[in-house]
Amino acid sequence: MDRSAGGASLPLVASYSGEHVFFYGTLMTPFARRQRAGIEDKLRAMGRGSIEGALFDLGIYPAAVRSSEGLVWGDVYEMIEPEAVLAALDEIEGFRPEHLEASLYVREQAPVTLEDGRTELAWVYFYNAPLGRAPRIESGDYKRRLARAKGCLQLSGSAVLSSGSGGSIGAVASLSSGRCSSRV
Asked: Of 26, 48, 127, 178, which sits 20 to 30 A from 73 (CA to CA)?
């Protein structure tokens, strides 16, 4: 998987009114991680958008890597207090600017295309560890993956695991129904 821009030219950014961040996993709505991290009131929702990349299912959360062979869908926010938000996110994502090789995720800027066609530059946390046998989420959409998995689980009688005290969906126990695909 190509993890670099590879010298490709980036699309022109239509406007840049402030610092933006792109969430593609458990920091998206409806998960409660932004509230638990104390950053919800430091963000202004801008809507859904996509970045170039590939999305993988690590079990309890997804991992996006840079790739020109797909899109990753998520939520775009404007940061009202960028320093506070990024400090909290760096902690959550295991990003250590002074030790990039030891960081679970690395924070990089990438162009995000919003649903209305505008492009904004946003901070994105890209996975920085071996993917192992993590399956690719072909749709590039973690919300769609979980919705599909929840439907599959209802069909197969399996259970959805929670993250414990947080109460948000963390991992899918089984996708055993023959009518459901684990590649969503």
From this structure: 178
Q: Each residue's pLDDT tens digit in the chain (184 positions)?
A: 433 333 333 333 334 446 999 999 999 988 888 888 989 999 999 999 999 999 999 999 999 999 999 999 999 999 999 999 999 999 999 999 999 999 999 999 999 999 999 999 999 999 999 999 999 999 999 999 888 877 654 433 333 333 333 333 333 333 333 345 444 4
- Dist. CA 96–CA 93, nearest whole Å: 9
Short-list 176, 124, 126, CA closest to 151? 176
Where b means 16+ CB within 10 Å and e means fewer, 78-107 reads: bbeeeeebbebbbebbebeeeeeeebebbb
pTM (2 d.p.): 0.74
Domain boundaries, the chain: 20-127, 142-172
CA 33 to CA 40: how far, in whole Å? 9
Fold classified for 20-127: Hypothetical upf0131 protein ytfp (3.10.490)
Distance CA 137, CA 21 (A): 21
